[in-house]
Fold Glucose 1-dehydrogenase.
Amino acid sequence: MVKRVLVGYGIDVDAVSGWINTKTGAPANPTDVSRGIFGATVGIDRLLKLWDKFGIKTTWFVPAHSIESFPEQLAKVRDAGHEIGLHGYTHEFVGTLTEQQQRDVLAKSIEVLTVFTGKKPRGWTAPAWDTSKETIKLLEEFGIEYDHSFMHHDSQMYYAPSGSETWVETNLTREASDWMVPMTSLKPSSVVEVPASWHLDDWPPFQLSLKQASTHGFVDTRVVEQLWKDQFDFLYREYDTFIFPMSIHPQVSGKPQIVLMHERIFEYINKHAGVEWVTMEQMVEEFKKGNFGGVEVKGGVDV
Ligand SMILES: [Zn+2]
């Protein structure tokens, strides 16, 4: 069978917002803030030049704070024809928010993006891929068509199941018999999932942060390049159709050595027959129209 592979970049413009939403209320470190400014300025410019050189359109998930703080930079992204999707207002970790706070952040960020682009955003990715049990329900409520945060699969789209019925709280004050029950069955929502993967993300290997134990910052770009190519090779061998969404950040991938890595990855992937470089909304469009296959996520039992 002829291969068809939809490949795309999701670019999270966390900029300053990712450094000031500290969860603890502690003041932001000015040096961290300066790294965010580098991303919003130098990083965006370098990546826009790269996509222009490749001749591809990409998806930019932008916290509303970044749009309101760097309107001229984001206007370049918008005017170059790239997709702009949701990523919170101040990069809030939604798992720490109340349902009402999640709703208020969604409403405000949808409003900012709609005014800025002239159309309602279609997609959302959770800041730090930190989701909540209300996430899918709220995306449905706000009419958001797709999400890019969950990991039920790694290369096939599906209708995201709502997480609200799969939670079994455990704590030491309860009887063990209270929690020894299987998960309840998954029910698909109307939200299409473009699955996320930490192994196709630039942040953990390349962004040094002394406050985030999961980050490193000094991994050889050729090690990560091989890691990403190996994933592509396996999927290309095993599936006739699959998606390959890569997640990056201007303050990380805008660094010289990582720009060069993306150039090598682009050239490598492009050597394969059937590859199309698309935005995530284009992936979702193909899936919803039935032009591109996916999977059904199963699990749990009816109790
Ligand atoms: Zn982010």
